[in-house]
């Protein structure tokens, strides 16, 4: 015999709520987003939020994973699908120009101004950004090793340059740069391959 469940069943779509939480953190950043902001955006009470997602930090961790699997997945897709580092980075820059308009990148901007109590969030996002740069470096080095790029190409510096360009595009988007503005940045950055 099973015991009856206590409380009311969830009356909201968890996936839709997670996407709404993502949008809220993306717009405001981690520290500037309060639990009240989240419950308002999701249309649920605090007890429902905690029951469904745990605390604010656990919800943010889920949001980051969702972002990487959805809105931010264009980077990993380009690296997996394009035959060379140059083509992958070109695709990443062009897709960033489209994806970032108006709000930038969650991974780049969500913890720009965190309080000391949120240092773990800042470190988590810093780690993801550094990992992304390292993946670019590895891909560039593969092309050097395969003869696609000249011997002596500094894969680390090139990867750092493109990571900095992507981060700058994110901030420019948050500051109001248009898709055309960001596309011009992407095109200019790609001139380093020549």
UniProtKB/TrEMBL annotation:
<feature type="domain" description="HTH tetR-type">
    <location>
        <begin position="11"/>
        <end position="71"/>
    </location>
</feature>
<keyword id="KW-0804">Transcription</keyword>
<dbReference type="InterPro" id="IPR009057">
    <property type="entry name" value="Homeodomain-like_sf"/>
</dbReference>
<keyword id="KW-0238">DNA-binding</keyword>
<keyword id="KW-0805">Transcription regulation</keyword>
<dbReference type="InterPro" id="IPR001647">
    <property type="entry name" value="HTH_TetR"/>
</dbReference>
<feature type="DNA-binding region" description="H-T-H motif">
    <location>
        <begin position="34"/>
        <end position="53"/>
    </location>
</feature>
<dbReference type="Pfam" id="PF00440">
    <property type="entry name" value="TetR_N"/>
</dbReference>
<dbReference type="GO" id="GO:0003677">
    <property type="term" value="F:DNA binding"/>
</dbReference>
<dbReference type="InterPro" id="IPR023772">
    <property type="entry name" value="DNA-bd_HTH_TetR-type_CS"/>
</dbReference>
<dbReference type="InterPro" id="IPR036271">
    <property type="entry name" value="Tet_transcr_reg_TetR-rel_C_sf"/>
</dbReference>
<protein>
    <submittedName>
        <fullName>TetR family transcriptional regulator</fullName>
    </submittedName>
</protein>
<dbReference type="InterPro" id="IPR011075">
    <property type="entry name" value="TetR_C"/>
</dbReference>
<dbReference type="Pfam" id="PF16925">
    <property type="entry name" value="TetR_C_13"/>
</dbReference>
């Amino acid at each position: 015999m099973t015991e009856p469940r206590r409380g009311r069943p969830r009356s909201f779509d968890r996936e839709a709520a997670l996407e709404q939480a993502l949008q809220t953190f993306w717009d405001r950043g981690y520290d500037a987003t309060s639990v009240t902001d989240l419950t308002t955006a999701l249309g649920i009470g605090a007890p429902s939020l905690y029951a469904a997602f745990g605390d604010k930090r656990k919800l943010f961790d889920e949001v980051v994973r969702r972002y990487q699997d959805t809105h931010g997945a264009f980077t990993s897709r380009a690296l997996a699908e394009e035959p060379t580092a140059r083509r992958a980075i070109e695709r990443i820059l062009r897709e960033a120009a489209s994806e970032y308009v108006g709000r930038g990148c969650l991974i780049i901007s969500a913890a720009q101004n965190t309080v000391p109590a949120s240092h773990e969030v800042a470190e988590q996002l810093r780690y993801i950004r550094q990992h992304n740069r390292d993946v670019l470096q590895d891909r560039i080095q593969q092309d050097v090793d395969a003869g696609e790029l000249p011997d002596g190409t500094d894969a680390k510096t090139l990867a750092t340059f493109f990571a900095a360009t992507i981060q700058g595009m994110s901030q420019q988007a948050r500051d109001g740069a248009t898709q055309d503005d960001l596309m011009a940045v992407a095109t200019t950055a790609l001139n380093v391959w020549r």
